[in-house]
Write a structure and sequence with these properties.
CATH superfamily of chain B: Fumarate reductase/succinate dehydrogenase, transmembrane subunit
Largest sheet of chain A: none
CATH class of chain A: Mainly Alpha
Largest sheet of chain B: none
Oligomer: heterodimer
Number of helices of chain A: 5
CATH architecture of chain B: Up-down Bundle
Structural class of chain B: mainly alpha
Largest interface: A-B, 32 and 33 residues
Distance between the termini of chain A: 62 Å
Radius of gyration of chain B: 21 Å
Number of helices of chain B: 5
Number of domains of chain A: 1
Helix content of chain B: over 70%
CATH topology of chain B: 3 helical TM bundles of succinate and fumarate reductases
Order of helices and strands of chain B: HHHHH
Amino acid sequence: MNAPHHIRTPIGRVRGLGAAKSGTWHFWHQRVTSAALVLLTIVFVVILLNLLGRNHAAVVQILGSPVVAILMLLFVGTGVYHMWLGMQEILLDYVHDEKLKIMSLIASTFFCFMVGVSSVFAILKLSFGV
Amino acid sequence: MADTSATRLKPRPLSPHLQIYKPMLTMMMSIVHRITGGALYFGTLLVAWWLIAAASGPSAYTTFETFIGSIVGRLILFGYTWALLHHMLGGIRHLIWDLGYGFEPTEREVLTVATLIGSIGLTIALWAIGLIALGGAR
């Protein structure tokens, strides 16, 4: 900060963001969710193994129990956010046509919301019944 | 932003892409990490279907069970299992690299090979446990 001829405004310096209007949040969120998902994936696999061969009533009872439901909500929620970030990166890398790029990004957001909301709704329904 | 037609039409030099380089294990596994990530993206449809079927009732659940028990269903589930485990182990490898460890030539190779062997081994082990458990339940 020894250069006195700053063009950037004080608020711009505080935010630490350049012309891209965003910083490292994408990278950071990807890493934080990935760390969480290592644990949650192990939990998910263990839950699945415990449900193998059980009938519908037993599956509903186990998936609806508070601890399992909370863990499943965490897995689905973190997973969907992680995959939304990942697909965004893939699309930005490979889709070069501007309109197609924007459309595919929006489509991916819709897809992630749809999968996420459906799964969360199903888990809540299993937990609260009716 | 000088986004005029003149600047847009000018062919800009691009950095060399994948096909320029000799394929290396770490590079191939980086590609596989992305492919498994993309596969898991659509694999969540299976998870959502399973949860919705369970929440809908016995007949919807039977439909799901019939599909996942079929040859095609089992192949998809086997692929999903491997993609999930491979992406998880690859993710751990990337987190190790993010922390600044494992960059020596042999460390890189060992980590990469371990990811592949680990994911294949774990997938086979999980399916063996699953099939034995299913056999015992019937």
